[in-house]
User: Fold this.
Amino acid sequence: MDNKFPHIDPLDHLEYMRYALSLARRSPPKPTNFRVGAVLVDEAANRILSTGYTLESPGNTHAEQCALQKYFADDAQHPSENQVEAALPLHTVLYTTMEPCQSRSAGNLPCVDRILATQSGDHQAIQTVYIGVKEPETFVAANAGQSKLEQAGIVCIHVPGLEEEILQVATEGHGLS
Assistant:
């Protein structure tokens, strides 16, 4: 087990979501972004592969994007993010505090499309996405990220228990009362 990540018991979905929430807290509060955390896990080996949070990398980066980009940047044997389908372990899952986005501003690939890029022929890398909350309609009306993933055969599972805390962290900096 890599010592840079905490040990979490196998299939402890709530604890993985708590870890993702701790990452979301690292994101700088801004009125134009949700603070989101993501954890990429090899579920078969119970090994955290990478993590990310909103604005962790330069630019208007999202948590899932940062986790995937860091995974491919951490190891010379991994190909570029454009070739993710061949590099992620088969039983990779994603924990994200908020439903992955289905649309982005110009020049940014939506997180749903990044997840779908892990699917290629018989190699279905990310098969499950664990979600803390659906995306509020603050920036995008009716985000259909979860629906798009499910239509592609990716299982989306809500992890209950932290919704209020996730939304509080996610909207910090929005100036809402």
